[in-house]
Fold each of these.
Amino acid sequence: MVMKMQKNWWKEAVVYQIYPRSFMDSNGDGIGDLNGITSKLDYLKELGVDVIWLSPVYQSPNDDNGYDISNYQAIMKEFGTMEDFDRMLAGIHERGMRLVMDLVVNHTSDEHPWFVESRSSKENPYRDYYIWREGKDGGAPNNWGSCFSGSAWQYDEATDMYYLHLFSKKQPDLNWDNPKVRGEVFSMMDWWCRKGIDGFRMDVISLISKKPGLPETKLPEGALYGDPGCANGPHVHEYLQEMNREVLSRYDLMTVGECAGVTIEEAKKYASLDGKELNMVFQFEHVELGDGSLGKWTDKRFPFREFRQVMSSWQRELSGKAWNSLFLGNHDQPRSVSRFGNDGPGYREISAKMLGTFLHMMQGTPYVYQGEELGMTNCPFPGMEAFRDIESINAFNELTGAGKAAPEDMMRYLLLRSRDNARTPMQWDGSENAGFTKGEPWIMVNPNYQEINAERELADENSVFHYYKKLIALRKQEKVMVYGSYELLEPEHESLYVYTRTLQEADSQEEKCQGCSLLVICNFTERETPYEIPEQFAAAEILIGNYQRREVPENIMVQPYEALVLKMGGKE
Ligand code: TEU
Ligand code: CA
C-alpha cells in the first residue's frame, strides 16, 4: 500500500522573511521598525505569503543586529514597543497570515542580566549559565576560532577566566547542559506562544550541545584558528525533544531549525515527520558550494553541477522521512539573483523568475527573503566604510592584517558575498532613499532603486513581483507542488536543471488530480539550449513560465534563463 503524505499547513505555506532593520522605517530615524512592518502588511497579503518570519526584534545592543539579545521579553527600542508588536501581530492575524519569531538561544548578549551576573564571580548562581574555562599556557583554553574572526574565547578580568563565544565576544554561548538554562529558555518560549505567535525559527540550534571536554581541533593548513566543530553535538536531539515536550507540542506551531553543519542523516532526526523535534531545518550545503581556503571569501561562481547534485540528494533523501526548507537567500547570504542568476540589465528579471520557479516547484516549504520578490541585487558598496556587518568588517581586518588576502581581493569577495548585500533597505519606490526612510538610512540604499522598486513592479504585470505572486498562488491550487515526489531528469546536463514532481496515487485521488505530474525545466545559463520534451508530457499544458510561450513543441529551444513548467493530468 502506498502511504499517504501527511498534510500540514506549514508544508503548504510560503514564508516571507523580514529583516526589520531594513524593511520600513516609520519615524524617520533611518532604522526600520515594527510600525513600518505593520504599514506594509497589505503589500505582503497582496503577494500572497502565508507566514512572516521576523528576524530578531528583542532588546539588544546590536553588536550583531539583534542576534545578541539582552532581554528576550522586551522589544528593541529602535523597533518600537510591545504595544506596537501586539498591533503588528493582530494585523498579521487579521489578514489570515501567521508570525514566526526568531529564537536566538545558543547565546545571549553579554549585556543580558544572566551574563552580567555570571561574569561577576565564580560563586554566582548564574555562573554555570555560560561556558567558563581557565586559560592554558597564558592564552585561550583551546584553539577554537569564532565565526566572526579571532579566538572563540574572551578573557574576563573579574574572575581571571575565559568564556566561550562561537560568534562575537558580545555573544557568549549559553551552557545548555545546565537544566536551569533549558528551563529558562522553555518558559520564555512559552510566554511568546501564549501571546499568540505561530512558530519559531531557531538560530544555530545545531550548535547548542558542545563537545564534551571542548577538545582542541586540528588546524587546517594555514588557518589561524581551529573549527570548534560543535554542530550536532551529543545531546542536541535530547534537548530538542525536551523542548518539544515542554513547549512546542502544546501549540500549533511551525518550527524551523537553522542548522549550520547539518548533514542529511542529521536532518532526518531534527525534522523527522514523527514530530518529535522540529518541522524542518535550514541546511547550507547548497550555499557553501565553491567555498575555498578562506571559506566564503572567494570570487568563484557556484558550481552548477554540484549544486544540482546537492539539491537533488536533499530532495530524494528527505522524501517521506523529513521535510525540506527551500531557500536561495536570507539575511546572511548575498542576493540570490546576483549569486545564482544574472543581475546584469539584460537578464536580471528573467533569471530572478527562473530561480523563483526552480525553488517553488521543489518539495519543501519555500522562503522568500525580503526584496527577492522584486529581484533586488547585490550592492556596489564603494569602500569598507560603507559596510555595517560585524562578520564582513572583522573578516576584512583579520584576513588582510594577517596577509591572507590582499585588500583589493578581499573587497572583491565582500562585494560578492558580504551579508550586507541582503541588508540594504527594501526598495519601495523611486523617491529619495527608495521610500524606506525620511531620514538617514543606517546602511546605504542600493543605487539601483529607481529601476528596481515595489511601486514600479506592482504597476507592471510582467514584473518579478507579479511572477512571484503567481507562483505563490499556484501552490494553493496545485497540491502536486507541495506533496508530489521529486525526480531528477538529465543529471549531467550542462545548462538545464530538469525535474518532475508526481503525486502518489493515494494523494492524487484525494486531490482529484489523477496522474498529476509536473515537468520543470530551468536554464541556469544564458545559452540557448535544445531540449526534447519527454513523451509523457507531450500533451501537457503550460502551468507557468518566464517567456511568453503559448505552446511547446516536442523539440524546444530553451531560452536564456528560461523556466517552464508543464502539467499533465488533473483535468476533469
Ligand atoms: O547565523 C549562523 C550562521 O551559520 C552564520 O554564522 C553564517 O555562517 C554566517 O552568517 C554566514 O556568513 C545565524 C544568524 O542567521 C546570523 O545572522 C547571526 O549572525 C548568527 O547566527 C549568530 O547569531
Ligand atoms: Ca525607525
Amino acid sequence: MNNKSKWMTFLCSLSLLVSCSPQKEQPKGSLLLCHEDEITEIIGQMTLEEKVNMLHGKNMFSSAGVERLGIPDIEYADGPFGIREEMEPHSWNSLGLANDSSTFFPTGSALAATWSEEMAYEYGKGMAKEARLRGKDMILGPAINIQRIPTGGRTYEYLSEDPQLSAALSVKYTQGVQDNGVAVCLKHYALNNQENDRGSIDVKVSPRAMHELYLPPFEAAVKEADAYGVMAAYNKVEGYWCSENDMLLNKILRDMWGFHGIVISDWGGVHSTVGAAMNGLDVEMPGERYMGQALLDSVKAGVVPEEVIDSKVRNLLRVRFAIQPIAKEDANKVMTAQPEQRDIAYKVASKSIVMLKNEGELLPILPNKYKKIAVIGDNAIRQQAQGGVGAGVKALKEVTPLEGIQNKLNNFEIKWAQGYYNYTREDRYKNISPYQKADKELMAEAVQLAKESDLVLFIAGNNREVETEGSDRTCITLPMGQDELAQALAEANPNLVTILVSGAPTDLRVVNEVSPAILVSWFNGSEGGNALADVLSGAIVPSGKLPFTYPIQLEDNQAYSLKVYPQVTEEEKEDIFVNLVNQKDGRQRKSPTANYSEGIFVGYRWFESKQIPVAYPFGHGLSYTTFDYSDLQLETTKQGIQATLQLTNTGKYDAEEVVQFYIGRPNSQVERPLKELKAFQRVSLKAGESKPVQIFIPRERFRHWDEIDKGWKIESGKADVYVGSSSQDIRLTGSTNI
Ligand code: BGC
C-alpha cells in the first residue's frame, strides 16, 4: 500500500468516530475508548523502534506518528490564549510565515473575571477553530493552576484563586475546544503555583489541600469534559518530579479519575528515562534526551517492559483516533485569525472588565459630561500579546486602550501623554528592576496635560515584561513610579480614573486614596481597547468580577504571612548556585522546598478565616446599575441543594450580574474556611426587570478530603448558604441540612 492509501485507510477508520459510542464496560463514557480493538491491532503491527519513536518530540511542537502505517504525527499548538506562530523545527525562532497571525484572546485571569461558563466555551471553540486552520491537533492549554501568590509569574495566564471557579471554566474551555475537533492539554499538572525555581522546587502539600484546592480544575476537566491531554509540570511534588510522579500520574490521574489520554512533559521537564517511563509519562517534549534511544535501550535491557511502551502508544493512538488529522498541505491556507474569533475575544473582554470603585459617578463618560479627556500612561499605547518569557501570540490585530478610546469616544478631545517609562525586554535582561522612581520629565508632561483636561484616564498597571513566565514578581507595587505619578495627577485633576492593565493583583494603597474610580482591564486580547472604551462610555455596563483577592499589602497573603514564600534567601541562592556548578549534571541542582503550610486557607479562605481586611475581595465588581436580591428559598434533596431567589435590576441600565453562592459548615468536625464558593450564575436583566434565579448545587460539592481514610467524605449536618454579589457583599443568607 502506498502512503496515500495508508493515510486514507487510517482516515476511513477515523470516520467510525461519528457513530461511536464507547462500549458499555468501558468507564466514564470516554470517546477515547472507541477504538480499543483497532488500536490493539495497530500496536501488533508496530516494531519496538516505531513505538518508541512516538514517545518523544519530533520537532519543537510535534511528536511522530508512523509513516509506514499511515499514522500522522501529532501537532501541538502552544496556547493558552492564542495559537502561537509557527516555529523553526528545532528552535524557538519564528518561521516568519505570512499566514500564521492569530487572534489574541484575553489571558486567563480575564477569562475568569467573566465568571461565565458560556464565555469559557466560546473561548475554547475560538481557539480550536484557529488551531484547525493551522493543522493542529492539541492545544497546550488551558492553564489552570490555582493562583496561590499574587506575585506568581503566570498569574495572568491562570484562572483563579478558587477551585470551583477554575474548575467550572476549565470544563467549558475543554468542551469548547474538543467539541470543535481539537484536543486540550491541561497544564501544568500539578502544583506549579510559582515560577521562581519552578524547575527545581519540591512542593510539600497536605493531601487535603491538594485534593480540595489544587487538583479540582484538572479533575473536573478530566471527569466532566473527557480532556484528552495533560502536561506534567516542571516542579516536584512530594519528592518526585511531576513528569515521573506515580501518585499524580498513575494513582490520581488514571486510577482515581479514569483519564485515558496522553501525558506529555512540559518543555524540557523530563529528568530520567526509567523514572518517567515507569511512572506515567507518555511523551517527552520537545526532544528525545530521555525517551528516545535511552528508552529503547532500557526496553531491550529488560528494565522497562514492552507492555509499558504499548500502553503509552495506546494512549497516543486513542487521541490520534479522536482527533481528525489535517494533511500538511491543507494547513495554513488562510490567515489563522478570523473575524468570528475577534468577536469572541471582544465578548470575553467586554464581560471581564472589573469596576473596583466609582465614587461620585465619574463613570460612565456620558456625551456632554466632559470635553477634554487626558489619556495618560505607557500602557495606553502598548500591545500585550507578546512579552516576557513563554507563550506569546503573534496577533493579527490588537486594539490598544488609546486606540479604543479614540475609536469609541470620538466626540471628545482626546490627548495622550506617556506619563511613565516603558519597562522593556532589554531592561529585564539587564536585571533592571521595574520598581523605579517616576520619570520626572514624563511626569511633568502628564501633569500639565491633566491640568488642561476635564477628566484623566490613567492607564496604569504592569506589562508583559513585568508579569512573565519563568520568574515571579518581587513585589506587587505598581511599577515605573506609577504611585508617585498617580498622586501628582490627582493633585492636578481630581477627576482621575485609574485603569489597571495587568493580569494579577497590585498594591492599590496609593491609587485607592487618590483615584475616585478604578477599573481592572487585564491583558485583554485583540479587542481589549475597544471593550475598555465601551465600558468607559457606558455602551457596555461593567460586569466582571475579581477571580482573586486584592490584598492590602503583599505580606497579608498566606504564603508571605507564614513565611513559606519566597523559599530561597539570597544566601541560599548562592548556595544553590555553588551546588549547581559543582555538579557534573547541571540539572541535578538542590531542590528548595515549597511548604504549603497554609493548607486549605488560600486566597479569600485565608483572609476571611484570619479576619485580615483586603483592598478588594474575591468576587467583587461593581456595575453602573444596582441589583436587589430577595426571597431566597432552599430545597435540599439527596442530590443536592436547589436554591431560588429573585434578582431585580433597580437601576437605569440593562446589565449583567454574577450571583455567587457560598457555603459554610458551622458545626463541621474538620477545620474549614468560613465559606467557600460552590456555584455561580451570570444573569442578564433589563433596567427595572426582575427574574427568578435558580441554581442547583450538587451534593458532591460538599465533599471534603479525609486525611485519615485518604478519600472523599460528605459530612452531614448544617450548611449555611450565603448568596451575594461578592464574597464580602452577601445579600441573602439561609441554612439547610445536608
Ligand atoms: C511552558 C508551557 C508551554 C511550553 C511550550 C513551557 O516553558 O511552561 O506552558 O506550553 O513551554 O512553549
